[in-house]
Amino acid sequence: MANYARMYRFGITPWERYGTMAAASIAALLDREETERSRPHGRALDLGCGRDQYTPDLARRGWEAVGIDYVPAAIEAAAAKTQGADRLRYVVGDVTRLPSAHLGTFDFFLDIGCFQGLDAGQRLSLEEGVSALANPGATLLLLSFGPSRWRPLVGGASQEKEVDTAFAGWEMLAVEPADTAGLGWPMSKTAPRWHRLRRRT
To answer: Is the pTM of this model over 0.70?
Structure first.
């Protein structure tokens, strides 16, 4: 797992630039999630949420949104920005030990670059936690770089060997190219993909 605490400390946060530059394409994917549900949409968990980039948007869209991240400074910054917001909560916690955070169950999981930075054992632990917290019919939207020569530096995961293996109990609904706007080099050369999955019942 990357040392995100250190990266925040030194202001190295390329994922935040991506969230701004690719906002329209991410919004379209979230729109699609909501077309299958009536309001209120249910509960959403933002895995590796960082400093409030996507969790508040989920709350504004009608989800009861929870953001979890293991970096206390990131959670503190997120909570400070959104103090008093409805249907929004932040938790310091480990995505590979989700049941221990006592978060309840969820209808939607959002993972933008979290899974790809974990090793094989941690990925399986993340899946076990997500599956334990998933309501019937829950969906997962997962963004990951593809395998590349830059993987030791920026992470990545293949669909066949890693996403499908970790989420064997889930149905793959769609795999689509992700917008590379704002990623910068070498992340823009990693063929990022969105994976949309549904928990099998």
So the answer is: yes
